[in-house]
Each structure stands twice: as structure tokens, then as C-alpha cells.
Amino acid sequence: MVLEIRQADQSDRDAVARLLDVAFRDDPVSGWVFPDPEHRAAVHGKFLGVFVDVALEEGRIDCAVDGSAAALWLRVPAGEPDAEAAEDEVPARMRAAADPDNERCELVGRLTGAVHPTAEEHEYLLMIAVAPGRQGEGLGTELMRPVLERCDREGLPAYLEASSERSKVLYERLGWEVTGEPVRLPDGPLMWPMWRKPRG
Fold first, then answer.
1. How far, CA to CA in Å, does 35 sit from each of 40, 53, 107, 188?
2. pTM of the model
3. What is the pLDDT of residue 80?
């Protein structure tokens, strides 16, 4: 498969947020943050839209030209206090944008941020989404391939948090390994921090 990929810009913001919304609407973590399905349908896109804004401001978004998939990446420098401070404000932004009375909007980001490695510079796969009707076709793998190949060339690791067993298995096939203990959302699902060493 050859997937045609382009880099998204501000004009793609709403389309990418809609894609994340539909792709993650039934994700275990989204279900934990917004347990009521009707409420989730109303605010979930606003919640994930903050990720889109952060990636457009500070990183990059790679999209399939046909709109079927998008990957949000941030280059995280080694142990820079400024980067940690910026990451710290994102959970509060997500809560404020989507559901100010829902502390889970912020808690999920605080818990994952607490275990995010800072010792080495790395590419952080913030989110990757494939349209529900296209999942299982290998689009996500193809979308990640150029960045992972660049990581291998540059000797750069990559990091992500898997939000389901299914996605964890996919990432393991691509060279990621679970690092440390899973993040345990209170009375909720696990999230797996995963690190990918560059391949020589």
C-alpha cells in the first residue's frame, strides 16, 4: 500500500478534530473521561481539539490526503523545564475547553504527564486516528512509517501511550515496548507508556 501523506495546517484543524472524535468516541479512555454517551458526543471533539491545537502550534500533523487518517507528533527535547511546563498546562486547557466541571478531563493528562520520560530527546506520538470504516487496513502503520524511518536514521527514540490492548499490540509490532508500569486511571482502564528505540 502506498498512502499519500501531507502535512496539515490550520485550515485542517476542524477536520482533524472531527476525525479524532469519531475514531476515539468508543475508546476505553474516552469512555472513562466521559461516561455518559450523549455527553461524550457533545464535548469529546472539543476535548480532542486541544491536542490538534497543540500539535499545530508546537509539532506536526501528518494526514492521509483522503482524510482517512491523521497522526499528531511533538518533538520533545531532553529534560527542558520549558517543555515540561508547556505539557503541564495542556490538561487544564483540555478541561477548560471541553467540560470545566469534569476533573477527569484534566486528570488523564496529569497522570500520563507524570510518567512521560524526559531524559532523552524523542518524537512523541500524541495521537493517531484512523476513520472507523478504514481501521484494520494498515493506514496507521503507513502514516507512522516516514517519522519512524526518520527516527531510525537520526538515532531518535519515540514515545506514546497506548489506550487499549488492541493498539498496544499494534505498536509492539512496530518496535515499541511497554516501559514501566501502566497508568491506572481511577476505577478505569489502563494506559501503557511505550518507548521505541531507534533501529539500526
1. 7, 24, 15, 10
2. 0.91
3. 59
Backbone angles phi, psi at 99, to 5 degrees: -165, 75
- Any bridge partners for residue 5, and if so which? 64
Q: In three state form, how does the secondary structure of the chain look?
A: CCCCEEECCHHHHHHHHHHHHHHHCCCHHHHHHCCCHHHHHHHHHHHHHHHHHHHHHHCEEEEECCCCEEEEEEEECCCCHHHHHHHHHHHHHHHHHHCCCCHHHHHHHHHHHHHCCCCCCEEEEEEEEECHHHCCCCHHHHHHHHHHHHHHHHCCCEEEEECCHHHHHHHHHCCCEECCCCEECCCCCEEEEEEECCCC
- Residue 87 confidence (pLDDT) above 80: no
Let me know: does 88 contact 150? Beta carbons within 8 Å.
Answer: no
Q: How far apart are CA 16 and CA 23, in angstroms?
A: 10
